[in-house]
From TrEMBL:
Family to which the UniProt record says this protein belongs: Belongs to the AHA1 family.
Gene3D superfamilies: 3.30.530.20
Name of the featured protein: SRPBCC domain-containing protein
Annotated source species: Kocuria carniphila
One Pfam family of this chain: AHSA1
Domain Activator of Hsp90 ATPase homologue 1/2-like C-terminal stretches: 23-159
C-alpha cells in the first residue's frame, strides 16, 4: 500500500498523509494535472469523482463532484493558491453546493500536496489544515481519513498501468 503514515495533530488542526509511489515526480504530477486521469483515483473507490473544471495553475480552480453508490452527488471546490510544477501545489479545499460555491457551515481547509524523488520512488506528502480542532474532528467524523487513504492507495496501480 502506498500510504505509509497518517498523522493527526489536534493542536495544529491538521492531518498529514505520506505515501510512496513507484513512479517519477513528473508522472505523479501528470496525474494531478490531467482531470481525466485524476478522476480514476480521486475519492474513495465507491464514490468516483467527475471533474467539471480543473485548472492546476495559480489562481485556477477545480470543480468536481463525487457520486455515491446510491447516485447522490457531493460537490467540492479547490481554489489553487500556488503551483511549483512538478513538486508542489497548494489550494483551499471546500465542500461545495450544486453551483460549486463554498457550502455554508461545512469546514474548509488549506491543503498542500508535495512530491519529492526518493531513490526510484516518489514520496508524496498531503497536508490539510483546518481553522479549528473542531473542524478537523468534524471531517474525521465524516470519514475523511479513511476516504483519503483509500483514494491515495489507488494511485500506485494506476501509475504503473
Amino acid at each position: 500500500m502506498p500510504v505509509i503514515e497518517v498523522t493527526k495533530d489536534v493542536e495544529a488542526h491538521s492531518i498529514t498523509i505520506i505515501a510512496e509511489f513507484s513512479a517519477s515526480v513528473e508522472r505523479l504530477w501528470e496525474l494531478y494535472a490531467d482531470p481525466r486521469q485524476l478522476e480514476k483515483v480521486f475519492g474513495p473507490p465507491t464514490y468516483p469523482a467527475t471533474f467539471v473544471e480543473h485548472e492546476l495553475t495559480e489562481g485556477g480552480s477545480s470543480k468536481y463532484y463525487m457520486t455515491s453508490p446510491e447516485g447522490e452527488k457531493y460537490c467540492g471546490l479547490w481554489r489553487i493558491t500556488s503551483v511549483n510544477r512538478p513538486n508542489q501545489f497548494t489550494f483551499q479545499d471546500y465542500f461545495a453546493n450544486e453551483n460549486f460555491e463554498p457550502a455554508e457551515g461545512l469546514p474548509a481547509s488549506e491543503c498542500s500536496y508535495s512530491f519529492e524523488s526518493n531513490d526510484q520512488n516518489v514520496r508524496a506528502t498531503y497536508v490539510s489544515v483546518f481553522a479549528s480542532a473542531e473542524a478537523l474532528q468534524e471531517v474525521l467524523d465524516m470519514g475523511m481519513e479513511e476516504g483519503s487513504v483509500s483514494s491515495i492507495n489507488q494511485i500506485d496501480a494506476f501509475l504503473v498501468s
